[in-house]
Amino acid sequence: MGLALFLALHVAPEDADQGISQRIFYIHVPIALTAYFCFGLGAWKALMLLWRGGERYDLESYVAIHQGTIFGTLTLLTGAIWAKASWGVWWTWSSRQLVLFLVLFLFYGAYFMLRYSLEEGARRARTSAVYALFGVALIPVSFLAIRLAEDFIHPTVFTRDGPQMTGTMFLAFCVSWAAVTLLAYVLYRVELVGKRLDADLRELRESLT
Amino acid sequence: MTGGEYAALAYGVVFVVVLAYVAIIAAKLQRLQRETAELLELARRNPTVREPGRSAVYAAPVPRVSAGEEEAR
Hints:
The structure holds 2 protein chains of 2 kinds. By secondary structure, chain A is mostly helical. Chain A has one domain. Chain A has helices at 2-11, 25-52, 55-87, 96-117, 122-135, 138-148, 167-208; strands spanning 158-159, 162-163. Chain A has a two-stranded antiparallel ribbon with strand order 1-2. In chain A, α3 (55-87) packs antiparallel against α7 (167-208). The mean pLDDT of chain A is 86. The longest helix of chain B is centred in the first third of the chain and has 43 residues, at 3-45. Classes of the chains: A mainly alpha, B mainly alpha. The A-B interface holds A 5, 9, 18-21, 23-24, 27-28, 31, 70, 73-74, 77-78, 81-82, 84-85, 183, 187, 190-191, 194, 197-198, 201, 204-205, 208-209 and B 1-4, 6-7, 9-11, 13-14, 17-18, 21, 25, 28-29, 32, 35-36, 39, 42-43, 46.
């Protein structure tokens, strides 16, 4: 993470058009991609639950979606700051990319409302898994919206001709992406271990008392 | 605000959110540590639970002796 910050804030050259505010790109885009990955992982674990069964997939799916929501919140916050710096507004409803990401975020926000409205057990696990699987359809739509949309407010950096940036900028982006993915993985593992430990302790307490 | 201040704000927001998340996880781990200590104490007070390095109090079943065997002794 330190190397990523050093490359993004010190080594990568300043953008000729946007200036120093373009450096938000090195944190905003990796966080957004990680949020998509976490939602995708949550849907994959949900599919495994419905396909193979097994209580562990329910918890893994839940933790992945929880991570996705945290990174989704960060995507919206850093995106709003970048929008204010570049466009002069915190939010614009005319960009489909932004609106679709918000829809995806709210969809997974409702996942927690659904999950906690049901009693713990196999029914809750199955219902949550089905909901998580529905949400996965929004991921490619949200991801490709920038190319499908006709507006040109949100910049397109990765085109068919490759990344539209210098080699140093691309290196800083790749290192930042790897760092954010690693951070998400560590947080995912820590939260998962905590949840499992919590469940085990609850079971142990019930058997002892 | 200047472009540099917006960039600093964006990185600062990420730092604060991750820090808050780590603080929540740390608080949860402290709670789990406390609960583990409580359960250990509960287990020590329970006579049916075997302590490490000692045999269980009620672990070995006592064989029932019939009347004939008792007379033979």
